[in-house]
Design a protein that fits this description.
- The protein is 38% helix and 20% strand.
- Strands 9-8-7-6-5-4-11-10 form an eight-stranded parallel sheet. Strands 1-2-3 form a three-stranded antiparallel sheet, with helices on one face.
- The longest helix is centred in the middle third of the chain and has 19 residues, at 107-125.
- It is globular, with a radius of gyration of 18 Å.
- β4, α1 (73-86) and β5 form a beta-alpha-beta unit.
- The chain has a single domain (51-314), classed as Dihydropteroate synthase-like (TIM Barrel), CATH 3.20.20.20.
- The chain has 317 residues and is α/β, with parallel strands linked by helices.
């Protein structure tokens, strides 16, 4: 645990966070937010030297592949520690399932689910592992930041609640903006594109402009093409084949293919938990394209895939 007296004054320093074989350089700013918490860690990505693995921690009863497994605080903290030991660089905590046809969860229930887990991670697992809050609601994001989260991961790119942008700007925290056609309730009903990569890029460029206008620093913006969110099978493969175009925007790119159904259709696998290896293939592909961040359930397999692909990429001439 962190002694609260350590947080009485602002301290700005460059910290080299080494987890496993990943060297993620961040600027960490610790500032006291109240007498009852561990303080708030705000940081801006300055340099990502190797691929970053974001571990998925769904504290929900109905997520598509691990619903209910980590809905209790103790189970969630045990999983967070396991992910950290296996090489996760960020832990992404979510209190609302975003699988196709998932029911919406109110902000109070989301807060009830995620805040004790985030506080527990800070108190019992890691003081400084970056934690992202997976939510589209500013009220939930604010509660999560107060509890110790450092990043906002918004699958709606602030279309559901533009106050998310104001919050990210005021707190000076990174925000992940993702593309999704429709909402989780209807996104897979009949998605349609003319040229999916072009359309997703245009959307993300528009959301970036809106985020910057709201006061968010460009260095605090991460983009996500939204694999599996309002996409047909071929749309997902077209996006994967064109990851370099997202990298070329100059913004850090997050790739989220973990255990998703379009992989199972190719592999003839119906159980999402059996798609760790398939996911790892896409991680390796992403590394070769220059993608920086990978949101995954299976840390070890994807850590290994990312590290091997990175070693190969470093040998390219």
């Amino acid at each position: 645990m962190v002694n609260n007296t350590f947080l009485q004054r602002l301290q700005v320093f460059n910290k080299c966070l080494f987890v496993g074989q990943i060297n993620l350089v961040v600027q960490v700013i610790y500032t006291k937010t109240s007498d009852s918490n561990l303080g708030e860690a705000l940081f801006m990505f300055r340099k990502i030297e190797k691929p970053v693995i974001m571990g998925i921690l769904n504290v929900t009863p109905d997520s598509f592949s691990d619903g209910g497994q980590f809905s209790g605080v103790n189970a969630a903290l045990k999983q967070a520690a396991k992910m950290l030991a296996e090489g996760a660089d960020i832990i992404d905590v979510g209190g609302e399932s975003t699988r196709p046809n998932a029911e919406q969860v109110g902000v109070d229930e989301q807060i009830r689910r995620v805040v004790p887990v985030i506080e527990g991670i800070r108190e019992k697992v890691s003081v400084d592992i970056p934690i992202s809050i997976d939510t589209t609601q500013s009220i939930v994001a604010e509660a999560a930041l107060d509890a110790g989260a450092n990043i906002i991961n918004d699958i709606a790119a602030a279309r559901d609640d533009e106050a998310v942008l104001t919050l990210a700007a005021e707190r000076d925290v990174p925000i992940i903006l993702m593309h999704m056609q429709g909402s989780p309730q209807d996104m897979q009903d009949n998605p349609s594109y003319q040229v999916v990569t072009d359309e997703v890029l245009v959307f993300l460029e528009q959301r970036i402009q809106i985020a910057v206008k709201a006061g968010i620093k460009k260095g605090n913006i991460v983009i996500d093409p939204g694999i599996g969110f309002g996409k047909r099978k071929q749309d997902n493969f077209d996006l994967l084949a064109n990851l370099q175009r997202f990298v070329d925007t100059g913004f850090p790119v997050l790739l989220g293919t973990s255990r998703k159904g379009f992989l199972g259709k190719i592999c003839d696998i119906t159980e999402p938990v059996e798609l760790a290896n398939a996911t790892a293939v896409t991680t390796a592909l992403g590394v070769m394209a220059g993608v920086q961040i990978y949101r995954v359930h299976d840390i070890l397999e994807n850590r290994q895939a990312a590290d091997i692909a990175w070693a190969i990429k470093q040998s390219q001439t």
